[in-house]
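Next comes one such specimen:
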Amino acid sequence: MLINRPFKQILSALFTYVIITTAVMADEITEVVNDVAAKLVQQLPMDKKIALKSLSPEETGLPEDFLRKLTSDLEAALLTASDFEINLANRLSLEDVWQEAVEFNNADFDELFKSANADVMLMMSPRAISTGVEIAITAYSLTGDDVGKTLASSGSVLLPIDLQANLGVDVKGLNQQLNTIIEKLDEKEVQTPVQAHISYRRFYGAAEISNDSACDTVFCYEDKIVAIVNGKKYVVYDSDITSDNVIFSNDLDNDGFLDALIESHGGGNCCPPNYTIVSYRGEGRFVTFPLDTWAWEQPRLLQEGFRWVVRVVNTSTGAGNSNLSDEVLEFRVVDGNLDVKSAGSRMLDFAVAEFTSEEALQKMDDNFEYTWKFDFDADSIDEILQCKVWERWGVVMDCHIFDAEGSWAVVAADPAYKGSGGAQCKVISVLEEIHEGFHKLACDFDELVLVGSNKTFVHPAEEKKRSCGISLSFSTILNVQNYTNLRQQAGLNGQVIGQVPLGATVSVINPGRYLRYDRCAAACEGSNQNAIKTCIDNNDVWIEVQYNGRRGFLSRKFLE
């Protein structure tokens, strides 16, 4: 139960007189807790980091001291039942440690939280009833493809406690007061118990396959998504023109039924995947919600109370797309319907002039080039901005600035990209700020490009400087005879999950980011071209990419 702050104070007042006695956790109670722990240990992943947490006094109607004692006893029981193999953190105790570390030892809270990040949340939900305290313990996945998935459950277990005698809690009176409070609340949210055991699987023919498994056909065009409800199978998504994967499954609308997000990709690199929410409505009925998206990054799953939000970043990158947009959309399943809300769009920096790929596409010459005039160095004489037009992707690239006599040119990108085609832009903005005698330039939203401070001619054919990272959103496969292997993990020992042919274009997941071995740390962070080249040529630097809807790692050696 989510309760507003004014009513939290009412509940707190109800329990100010409570005294915890030593008889609360008697032998009989301890035996129940130990039995629950023994059953949970058999279901929990021992190799994962597990956070143990209880609902709050405001959510349960039980005193804080009692909840802390119950949580600590469960923690001890889990450790004993697992023979101390379980990797467990008590969130109640952990929060106290954090507070003390931050307040008295000047510790960094963000670092503490990062180090304590868990893979599994073990949530205890106690509830006061007339015969004692009813508890239910559920384990949820917090990471990977199974975010939000239920991993284990204890079911409802009764702790036989005389609440009036031991805790001072009048269950009847408490229920009456809680009912009065609930009636006054505008928003009431409780966690709905699981109504059916549901899982979503990928099938090729009659055989189940994993998301990373190869099929007998080129792109698994004949695969389908099957929902298994209490052992019975239903085909919920079937297309003969796309390869389909289950991205994650969760109870999006808090109705007790597990829903799923499906990714579909038709192959090639022109367009991003399509996404569809599949929601179970009971009695063998499903509803599908195709999401109106253009997202190169996989959607994120965010929690709102006991409900979930699918967040998608729409970007205009793609074949023939010259428009510039970057909008975040949020999708919610509410009462069996899809609710779509915009979470905002990114805006361009204020500029004194803008040059667009859309204009260049409409007016380019036979050499796929287009030029603009502007006074870039603020000397009252216009220079010429000349760019190549990459029609397929709707961008301009290989941009140079010439003076009236053609005596100088500057690649409109970081100097490391001389002659490489430079930045790939839909909009080149001329900013107000002048640096070293020249206006700063911006490529699209946030990639600043500087025009150099001298008029030294930079020929497009000049050899580029190498770097460990790739700052562009796309890259091309080179330096291979036929193909290179896409790997699930960085490094030559990583599992091969696909092949990327020579000349293919891949999406760079995080432009500028890379993984490297420790021996290349100094080289990648420095400017020694020979050292950088050695690390790249030895396959010591890896880039995360997406190709045909599949994410993995490629050696920097094979990426342009």
Q: What stands out?
A: Residues 198-345 form one domain. The CA atoms of residues 471 and 512 lie 4 Å apart. Confidence is low (pLDDT under 50) at residues 1-25, 92-115, 411-420, 451-463.
